[in-house]
Give the backbone structure.
Amino acid sequence: MSTSERGGQPYHHGDLRRALVTAAREILEEAGPESLSLRDVARRVGVSHNAPYRHFPTRQALLAAVAADGFAILSARLAKIPAGSGMAAGFRGYLGFAREQPGLYRLMFDGGLRKSADPALWTVGERAYDGLRQAVLSLAPGADRAAVVAAWAQLHGLALLIISGQLADDLVSDSGLDALAGRVGAILEAGLRGAGAP
């Protein structure tokens, strides 16, 4: 196992790949995806500027790994919501994730990454999307793909409004966001139940 100096302390990177992704996420939240470079990530971890290339041949590969990490975190968060909790609970989890990690959320959905070009990213992204699909189908068993996309569009649009600072502060405080997610989730749930099969 190799070491390098990080803040005057030896840094043991038994899992350099994980350390690089973690550092990239930190930079992402501080400065956004456009500021993320392999050199900056290497500096943050405390390794040579060539070290990241062993795991990520390009900046795009690093961004894809960070986005995949985000989808895995989001999937795990949504999986903890008890079955039958309704759309409101899912909305709360999803919107809370976006609010807490806006840089990561933006990268996942608007970072210039094409999921279809990266099988690993596609798989983990689909896993996150499947939670939404299952929630919609539990409310409207005959719902088609358009209904699932409509639910996602509503949820994603609301997340972007929140992280872009477009909503009043009282709506995005902890209690405000909880109430907003509950109300919007209830509206969508009622619409899905009413729409039924196409």
Notes: The chain has nine helices and two strands. Strands lie at 3-6, 9-12. The chain has two domains: 9-54, 64-195. The first strand starts at residue 3 and ends at 6.
